[in-house]
Amino acid sequence: MARVEQSELGMSPQEMRRLAARAAEILVERACGLGDAKAWDGEFRQILEAQLGGPPPELGRPAEEVLEQAARDVLPYAARLDHPRFFGFVPSSPTWPGVVADFLAAGFNINSCTWLVSSGTGQLELVVTDWIRGWIGYPESAGGLLTSGGSAASVEAMVTAREAAGHPEAPAVYMSDQSHSALKRAALIAGVRRDCIRLAPTGDDFRTDMHELARMVARDRDAGLQPLALCANAGTAGTGAIDPLPAMADFCERQGIWLHVDAAYGGFAAITDEGRASLDGIERADSVGLDAHKWFFQPYEAGALLVKDRRRLENAFAIGHDVLQDTVWGKNHPNFADRGQQLSRAARALKIWMSVQTFGMARFRAAVQNGLDLARRAGAHVEADPMLELMTPVSLGIVCFRVNPADRACDEDTLDEVNRRVLARVFWDDLAFFSSTSLKGVFSLRMCILNHSTGWDDVRRTLEMVSRFGKEALVRRP
Ligand SMILES: Cc1ncc(COP(=O)(O)O)c(C=O)c1O
Q: What's the gap in Å between 294 CA and the centre of ligand 1?
């Protein structure tokens, strides 16, 4: 009998295989049926508590029964972020090799903390971060690590900036009024006072106003603050706007300020020619954060932080520990735990590596380009539909629009109400899911089109639904 069968928490090989095979079957069925399923499902707490609450059982029950319950009563109550018509927030659509990689890494029980503990996935993390380095045009001196996501990458970037600046006593960090909340949290965690996190205004194009930014920095210097870092957006989550990266790089060089680019969702557009051109200047940043669980088709969690001078990252995070003294194999064998905040770390590189090895970059490029093309086409459709109004130029897969009939003058309050009603109907309709944003106080519908399996028909049907709901909402208004 295998050792694993004898353990209190062990299973026979037959049971293990049966359980894994059933899990795989459920997942494949789900993936193949996604297009016909609802794009979103959820339930209120009272109902879920009745189904799932209760103390831990003293005695267990058959694993397959537990698996079926999870697949029936837990997992479906979620946004289907990989549904071809899920356009809300920033969706993700993982490739199957990526999903299998996470299962393998869990099964092999990999802790990608140090070279000694997992050299195979350590090597892959070097390979994958080097691919990303190349895609964003960073020099060989750059390096980084894979993180849980953009939020963790932002924290690690801010801490690196702080340490590189010699831990100033009164640091100030700059970003725009469109920047992601993750950056504000990162600055706070890095020790920046809340009132020293400066939000520069943006223009009508939602890009940082460089004149205002320069004035803010000058004022802060006069007041005795130490400008530490500027966070640029390479795809704001709201509109996809890309900040003037070359101008920001010039400014930061002149001022001696760390430039961090938050490219969490937009960064992987760099693998296409069109995206790379849009992100021109990203290669001049001191650090860049990107999320492979967004536009690089990986399961959560797959963020990345790249730092142009890798030594700065290591200087910020490497801390010796007696109990880990055997893991120090020298510079040529990096311990990724010394490049960030986590010691125990998932083997995130495996999923990226397996997916890219399986499909090849040509297909990844085509998948990213699909999002860029569909979003552009969606923008043209909105402009041609007399019921709809395009609110901002389409950028990096994001389309902001609203119901605003050309043949009927509506005041802003009416438009606001009508669009909120339309969105509420979309939420409870099975066809598609998208979300909204506020564009300098104006309510806007927003579609983010990044899924590799989305086709034009999915986008067209969704926009036609909005038009229809819009007409109906207007008719019902007195
Ligand atoms: C622009 C941007 N920055 C940062 C984040 C935070 O990333 P994560 O959710 O991976 O922590 C997001 C998430 O959507 C984002 O869109």
A: 9
Q: How far apart are CA 14 and CA 187, in angstroms?
A: 51
Token digits of residue 477: 């208004």
Whether 180 lines ligand 1, by a CB cut-off of 6 Å, is: yes
Verify whether ligand 1 is closer than 6 Å to residue 283 (CB atom).
no
Among candidates 128, 29, 147, which has minimal Cα distance to 353? 128
Please indicate whether residue 310, judged by its CB atom, sits closer than 6 Å to ligand 1. no
pLDDT number for residue 206: 97
The 10s digit of each residue's pLDDT in 455-471 is: 999 999 999 999 999 99
pLDDT at 1: 65
Angstrom distance (rounded) from CA 164 to CA 152: 18
Spatial contact of 288 and 266, defined as CB atoms under 8 Å apart: no
Predicted confidence (pLDDT) per residue in 263-308, tens digit: 999 999 999 999 999 999 999 999 999 999 999 999 999 999 999 9
Distance 14 CA to ligand 1 centre (A): 41
Q: Domains of the chain, with CATH numbers?
A: 13-41+78-92+360-478 (3.90.1150.170), 110-359 (3.40.640.10)
Kindly give the distance from the C-alpha atom of residue 236 to the centroid of ligand 1, in angstroms, as a whole number. 9
Q: Is 124 in the pocket of ligand 1 (CB under 6 A)?
A: no
288 CA → ligand 1 middle, Å:
13
Give the global pTM. Answer: 0.96
CA distance 333 to 99: 28
